[in-house]
Amino acid sequence: MKKRGKAAGIVLAVCLLLAGCADAGPGAGSRRIVRIGHNQSSGHPIHLALTAFKDYINEKLGDRYVVEVYPSELLGSQTDMVQLTQTGAIDYCVASNAILETFSRNYEIFNLPYLFASTGAYHHVMDDEAVTGPIFESTRQAGFTAVTWLDAGTRNFYTVNRPIESPKDLRGLKIRVQQSPTNIGMMRLLGGSATPMGFGDVYTALQSGIIDGAENNELALTDNGHGDVCKFYSYDMHQMVPDILIGNNAFIEGLTPEERAIFEEGYEIVNRVEREQWGRAVDAAKEKAENVQGVQFIYPDKEPFSRACLPLHQQVLENNPGLEPIYEAIQAYNREYPAGEEPGAGGQI
Ligand code: GCU
Fold this sequence. Notes:
By secondary structure, the chain is of the alpha/beta class. It has helices at about 5-20, 45-60, 80-85, 95-100, 110, 120-125, 130-135, 180-190, 200-205, 220, 250-255, 255-290, 305-310, 310-320, 325-335; strands at about 30-35, 65-70, 90-95, 145-150, 155-160, 175, 195, 215, 230-240, 245-250, 295-300. The chain has 2 domains: about 30-150 and about 240-280, 3-Layer(aba) Sandwich (D-Maltodextrin-Binding Protein, domain 2); about 155-240 and about 290-335, Bacterial extracellular solute-binding protein, family 7 (D-Maltodextrin-Binding Protein, domain 2), CATH 3.40.190.170. Helix 2 links the parallel strand 1 (about 30-35) and strand 2. The structure holds alpha-D-glucopyranuronic acid. Alpha-D-glucopyranuronic acid binds near residues 78, 178, 199, 216 and 243.
């Protein structure tokens, strides 16, 4: 990747800032440009979903708004983009739940390893506004709120040289994790050496041997080329970390009630299209990784991994007791949708 031109992203973002809100891009006239950034390729389910959003808004409100979607970290890393959304330099971006943990500790809950018993439990939790509402609203003071969630499958370890069959295989390995205290804590409990870095830097770090592996869903192997370097992918299924579409509060609050209803319908389209695309994208990625890149898929016993991670649940709840009722609600969904009973994309934990 694939390393993105960070400087280029920042320059573009500064230009957008200077351009302000009274936009006059080609054909935009006096229409307000709505800018959305994300860090995936233009073939990724997130881009397809945001393109459907763009088409919907342009169809319904095309006389007033022009939606522009910027893929591939063109506007910077996820952390950069969240900051740009905070200040209103851009209007929306997609950020991993892991990144949002630094903006509100409430997001820690969805970063917990082995939190969801199954894909069914995960989807039902994320669709339940009574559960997600207090989390999604918790950055209001910081200038942005979450408007919908996006499936990012299950996260699993993949490595250059050594297949991960049990936590002891992680010992001595430098594994890239997302930049969040929960992820660092998870790696510590599993015995590997956590190397936090932005997504756009992972390919080069793998290739140059700075890290021995990483952890992500299957699309990272193909879409981001990590499977060109890492030949072992182990389904330990340690996390289901959602991606979150966040929006700048001032922009959202400035919409008329009629416009707001249309944007809200648009958020639902983002969620629906991304989920429709996700299963297909995972199947295609597995096929390509196995048959073209020569990646070997490994199915270890998950129990030793989950046992090692469990203390993190207690620790997060002790440090943030406000999360207790949410954790309990998640356990209720886990009882309703236990492992092995729900097919769903991404498999079960
Ligand atoms: C997934 C996720 C991204 C995230 C990335 C990462 O690809 O969809 O939002 O940035 O993991 O590991 O950083």
